């Protein structure tokens, strides 16, 4: 058993929560001797099992922002057959108005040594009408800001395989998030 805060503070890159926290635009609140500090989720994870928490700080709460209008989110992962942890996981949250993406957040875990935000994917889909081609084009940008040679590479999956999976699972997450936002995605 554990807590959401404990899982986030543990910062396991294969955990499901780093990517979901980034896509959900969470604010993590830490308290220490100097008082309270607010940390955006995409700044919180800095390396494998390392966070932006100072030595004297404790994560005390997680704040989830409200969404306006039609929003949908999804988390999809390729689990490790031995542990169930993510070989790769992608979370997407889309705000949609008349099938046009007005806001997008996409986070991934199991790819680098910490949860990462996929800014190029967000940039490619925001302001666009949702079509299969738009989603595919955005998903193809999943590795644009990532150095494939620095991706996790182990007995479970090579860095090249993880890079391939990142595009596949980004597309799946975007499709599910669009569906949950009530969007109609024409071919």
Structure, explained:
The chain has two domains: 4-63, Uridine Diphospho-n-acetylenolpyruvylglucosamine Reductase, domain 3, CATH 3.30.465; 70-180, Enolase-like, domain 1. Helices cover 29% and strands 30% of the residues. It is built from six helices and nine strands, in the order H-H-E-E-H-E-E-E-E-E-E-E-H-H-H. It has helices spanning 4-10, 17-23, 41-44, 119-125, 132-139, 159-180, and strands at 27-32, 35-40, 45-47, 50-51, 58-63, 70-79, 86-97, 100-109, 116-117. It has a four-stranded antiparallel sheet with strand order 6-7-8-9. 41% of the residues are buried.
Main traits of this protein?
single chain; 187 residues; alpha+beta; Uridine Diphospho-n-acetylenolpyruvylglucosamine Reductase, domain 3; Enolase-like, domain 1; 4-stranded antiparallel beta sheet; 3-stranded antiparallel beta sheet; 30% strand; globular
pLDDT averaged residue by residue: 95
Number of domains: 2
H-E order: HHEEHEEEEEEEHHH
Number of strands: 9
Walk across the major sheet and give the strand order: 6-7-8-9
Give me the number of helical elements: 6
The CATH architecture of the largest domain comes to 2-Layer Sandwich
Regarding CATH, which class of the largest domain? Alpha Beta
Task: Give helix % range.
Answer: 25-40%
Itemize the secondary structure elements and their pairings.
Elements: H1 4-10, H2 17-23, E1 27-32, E2 35-40, H3 41-44, E3 45-47, E4 50-51, E5 58-63, E6 70-79, E7 86-97, E8 100-109, E9 116-117, H4 119-125, H5 132-139, H6 159-180
Antiparallel strand pairs: 1-2, 1-5, 3-4, 6-7, 7-8, 8-9
Helix pairs in contact: 4-5, 5-6
């Amino acid at each position: 058993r554990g807590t959401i805060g404990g899982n986030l503070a543990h910062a396991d890159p294969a955990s499901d929560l780093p990517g979901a926290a980034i896509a959900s635009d969470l604010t993590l609140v830490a308290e220490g001797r100097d008082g309270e500090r607010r940390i955006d989720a995409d700044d919180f994870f800095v390396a494998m099992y390392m966070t932006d928490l100072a030595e004297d700080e404790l994560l005390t709460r997680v704040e989830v922002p409200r969404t306006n209008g039609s929003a949908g989110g999804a988390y999809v992962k390729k689990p490790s057959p031995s542990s169930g942890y993510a070989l790769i996981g992608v979370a997407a949250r889309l705000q949609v108005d008349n099938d046009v993406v007005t806001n997008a957040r996409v986070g991934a875990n199991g790819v680098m040594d910490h949860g990462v935000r996929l800014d190029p994917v967000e940039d490619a889909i925001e302001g666009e009408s949702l079509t299969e081609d738009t989603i595919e084009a955005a998903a193809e940008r999943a590795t644009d800001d990532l150095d494939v040679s620095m991706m996790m590479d182990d007995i479970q999956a090579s860095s090249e395989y993880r890079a391939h999976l990142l595009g596949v699972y980004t597309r799946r997450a975007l499709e599910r998030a669009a569906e949950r936002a009530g969007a109609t995605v024409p071919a």
